[in-house]
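Q: what does this look like with NAP bound?
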Amino acid sequence: MVGVILAGVSGRTGREVGRAVVAAPDLRLVGALGHGSVGRDAGEAMGMAPLGVPIAATLPAFPPPEGTVYVDFTRADAARANVPTALAMGLPAVVGTTGFDARDLEAFESAARAAGVGVCVIANFALGAALTARLSALVVDVFPDVEIVELHGSHKRDRPSGTAAALAADLAGRRPGGREVPVHSVRLPGLVAHQEVLFGRPGELITLRHDVFSREAYTQGVLLAIRRVGRLRGLVTRLEEVWEGA
Ligand SMILES: NC(=O)c1ccc[n+]([C@@H]2O[C@H](COP(=O)([O-])OP(=O)(O)OC[C@H]3O[C@@H](n4cnc5c(N)ncnc54)[C@H](OP(=O)(O)O)[C@@H]3O)[C@@H](O)[C@H]2O)c1
């Protein structure tokens, strides 16, 4: 049984992840963190029956039992503090929160290495996003002129999205001269999470489009990472590395 401490349990994504954890026979929600919802029962915050797990403001002072994983779907400013704390307690971490820069990732990597545990910081847990990245790497070798359009609901704080930024960096590395890949961000009410990768050549165009219509899209990837992060060491930023590497 893998215990899960979930930060952001009452958030839009955290609720979906929490419900999937509760439904999984091999996982158990053992702790929850939040901000405005501190003190509420985690089950009630997810729209379920009470679980007897109160939402706390900070990680417990005592180390949780071995096999516990810390999961974070909050905000970058909160995760910058909580993720290194969890790692220093020896908890492997699965981080879905976005908005980190290279320095943040280095800090997570060194905290994980110092504790001898793994930290998965994955900007998009949807399996379709990982496949889009794979297919894009194939196409860019033949169609090196590429631009990315990412479209999200108006509530999304960071731009460009972590997914688009990571894909742009990958594709730039494969283009002649490492030329930067432009990313265009759209924020409009009604959108969920969508991405188009457009590859142009004279007279032809390839478009790879991935649409997320509900947050259910992320849960399978998150559960996979929760189950496997205990076998990883240091920083992992790609879902493919989780499913192939463990
Ligand atoms: N990697 C992926 O596949 C993926 C997919 C979807 C979203 N995301 C990312 O996940 C994050 C959350 O997105 P969302 O749409 O679910 O946001 P949201 O609905 O606004 O939820 C944010 C959550 O963060 C919690 N929070 C805020 N400040 C906190 C603090 N200081 N300590 C602990 N918890 C705190 C809030 O708790 P209270 O409710 O208690 O205030 C809330 O539960 C964003 O960074 C988003 O980009 C990633």
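The chain has a mean pLDDT of 95. The two ends are 18 Å apart (CA to CA).
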